[in-house]
Amino acid sequence: MVLDMATSRNRITKAVIPAAGLGTRFLPATKSTPKEMLPVVDKPAIQYVVEEAVTAGLSDVLMVTGRNKRPLEDHFDRNYELEEVLRTKGDAAKLTRVQESSDLATMHYVRQGDPRGLGHAVLCAAPHVGDQPFAVLLGDDLIDPRDPLLSRMTAVQQERGGSVIALMEVPPETIHLYGCAAAAPTGQDDVVRVSDLVEKPTEAEAPSNLAIIGRYVLDPAVFEVLRKTQPGRGGEIQLTDALQALASDPSLGGPVHGVVFGGRRYDTGDRGDYLRAIVRLACEREDLGPDFREWLRGYVSKEM
Ligand code: G1P
């Protein structure tokens, strides 16, 4: 009985998705449309992220939003008028497409009022999350649905406790774009023990070429640490700094481990990577892929 209670308290059921960013890299497209709603083929980028959480068993999703983010709430809600029109037309396929996003997860929203950084966004989730480990998924990182990462991270968290972050080897000249981890092997090929973290170091400062990519499974102790975390890089409250405090003192909330991801990841916050994600995912789609690949082959051989 005692064991059962402990297990249910530690089960991971909640996902937090910070989505208050302004998306200035995509102006003017993001002047009145949230960047999370930009389509990747025919689905908004954010829907892939919510689907990833649900696939990993986390169907309670809290989005941390801000001004001008109402379209996110509408996208994950019912659209009765559109549904009625499609039903009257007898268009079952499109009706399913419309309902997919509203049937996906139990959605909750909290507004970040004052955008003071990623750490502050995560702190806004504290009342909803309570005293359980939980996942954080950053909307700019799109993980290819065929290369599961989050479910591996939740399994590692359940095995080892504490917090687990997603890491990926990147070329050293790009490490300044990421949080960076110093880590030691654990005996499990894809799992490392994190000893040190630094947000967006220069190439010279970086302790490794292991970059944090936007997936975290966190012990709730992170909230107490975030409350005390002073503004760091860019004057913002950095999640990386709170994780650094956890990694350097496991008595606060257990150890910090990293899962080293070797799969496909796209940064949809970067225009070049965003285009690459669309082309790759379109090429691989059963419905669009065959025609699109043929066109692309011709385009590349003639025009480039
Ligand atoms: C954030 C984190 C950074 C992480 C990155 C992954 O930075 O602060 O540690 O490496 O996401 O995408 P941002 O890209 O939001 O500036």
Give a verbal description of the structure:
The structure is a single chain. The chain has helices spanning 2-10, 45-55, 70-75, 80-89, 92-103, 118-123, 126-129, 150-160, 221-228, 239-248, 271-284, 289-303; strands spanning 14-18, 39-40, 43-44, 60-65, 106-111, 134-137, 141-143, 163-169, 179-185, 191-199, 210-218, 256-260, 265-267. With 304 residues, the protein is α/β, with parallel strands linked by helices. It has two domains: 2-269, Spore Coat Polysaccharide Biosynthesis Protein SpsA, Chain A (Alpha-Beta Complex); 270-304, no CATH class. The strands form three sheets. It has a nine-stranded mixed β-sheet. It binds 1-O-phosphono-alpha-D-glucopyranose. 1-O-phosphono-alpha-D-glucopyranose binds at residues 118, 138, 140-141, 178-179, 199, 211-214, 238-240. The site of 1-O-phosphono-alpha-D-glucopyranose (G1P) has 14 residues, from β11 and α10.
Output the helix-strand order.
HEEEHEHHHEHHEEHEEEEHHEEHH
Give the low-pLDDT segments.
1-6
- CATH architecture of the largest domain, please? Alpha-Beta Complex
Helix tally?
Answer: 12
Alpha-beta classification: alpha/beta
Morphology call: globular
Strand content: 15-25%
Count of beta strands: 13
Write down the CATH class of the largest domain.
Answer: Alpha Beta
